[in-house]
Every structure is written in structure tokens, then in C-alpha cells.
Here is the input.
Amino acid sequence: MLTVPGTARVWHLAKNELARVEIQLPLMHEVEGVAYPIYDYMTPGSAFIAAPFGACTKRWERRAYTRSNCAELTPMRLETMVNRSKSKEELANTSAWWQEEDLIEATIEVRVEFDERHTHLKPFSLAHKEEAQSLLLEPIEMLCAMKRICAIGFYTGATPFLAYARYMAAYHFGHALKGPQDFRFIFIICVQNESQLICHDELLKIHKQFPYNFTYWPVLTRTWPRDWRYGRGRLLDPDREHIGSRVDIIPLLATVRAIEHLHLRICGGCEPRDRILLGLKQYGIKPLSVRSECW
Here is the structure.
């Protein structure tokens, strides 16, 4: 397996809880005495493979990290969002390289592969083989034909959808293509409190720049400022969702109207994903398509 040394930097967005990691790749890498250029054209929704040193296992660990930035805008810099899993401490501690309190720099090996013609290297791109579980984004031309996409992310499940939004903004949501474009991307992120929001100001800026194409709706499920103007509480009513074995998705339907006319994308924990899909089934609501990724 080919790897190249990348320079990793860490920014802590929420102390001991959430961090932004960025790995800068080199422009060239030597393989068997030959120097090859490295080109980056990863598709949003895919993951890269990095090998941090495991604090628990005491060995180098190969892990997949979903990319949150867009190769069109920031090539050669692989960005991802990571959180410390309190329910899986042993798993979380194997990535302790990013858990320092201060900004750090470290050398992290990143997996690469040759292109088909063997002329250059590129970051290895990992996506789920099953289409229903793959969040690999369609090309901009196909997105414009799809018209409406709604993405729901839970906590760091926002990561692939950040790449979506940045990619679409880079292409001005299809406005550069011929003919009128009425494509709309709705992005809903659910977190417990305001400190857990990822790239909040940037997403607000994209919404302001493309108000007819991009809707950003952050939902705070536990605590929120007194002047909070966005979503409050859970998308699924926690007090009623199991009454009569029926999931209460009324808050979701009030937030996302006409789901049956949308292509739905979900990223986050398996439990909220499964409840959303079950609730839609119970209400007889079928989106145009559904893809989801959970852990």
C-alpha cells in the first residue's frame, strides 16, 4: 500500500470534544526512485485513509476519515471533522494524535494510489460500495437535473455535507450551466448546543450568497441562546415517538416540507437514521431517493 507523509494541523472547535483536522499533502512523492506528481480530485462524500499512531494499541492505525472540504477549492489539503466518542473511549483514543488541547502539527501517512495511466498519484478515495449507503455526490450536471436535495446531519455527520455545500458553491449551484437553474440544496444539522456547530458562519455566508439555491437550518436539540432564530428541539418528538410503536416525525415534517419531492441524504448515528426512515414509512412518505451513512 502506497502512502505519503502529510503535515497535519488541528484546530479545536469544542474543547475535548470536537476538532477540525487538516492534512497537507506534498506536491511530489518518490516511488522506486521515480518522482511522481500528486493530483487531488476527490469527489465530495468520499473518505481518505490516514494512519495515526494509536495511543491504546501502540501501533500505527489505518482509519477512514470523511472529507469535509472540496478538492475544487482546496486541493491537496484533506480536511475532516472528528469528535471524541465518550461511548467508545478505546476506539477514540486510538486517534489521540488530534486530542491535544493546543494546536499541533504532526506527520501523518495518507494512502495514495496511481492513476489508471500510472503517470501520477492521487489520494485514495473510499466510498461505500452499496449505493443506498454511499454519500458520494453526483456531478453538478446531474445535481441540477435532480432539482432538490435535503441533507440531514447529526453532529459530525455534517462532515460530508460541508463538502457538498462547498462543491456546489464552487460551481455557483449550476448557474454557470446553460439554461435556467432552480436547483436547491437544503442542509439541516442537528447538534446539542451552539458550540458544536461546525463552520456555522461559513454556511450562513453561502446561504446569503445563494439564497435561492441553498438553505442552511441548524437545529439545537438541548440548549440554545435566548435570541436563537433557527431550529430548537429534536426533529423526532422524544416524548411521543414510541407511543403505539409509531415514530412521531411531525417536527421533521414541519422543518422539511414536501419530503416526497426531495432526494434525502442522512449522515450520523444509526439510531436517528433508522427512526427517520421508519417514521417516513409509517406515514406513507417516500422521498425520491434515500442514501445514508451511519456508524
Q: What stands out?
A: The helical segments are 89-93, 140-146, 159-170, 200-209, 250-255, 270-282. The radius of gyration is 20 Å. Residues 7 and 163 are 21 Å apart (CA to CA). The chain has a mean pLDDT of 87.
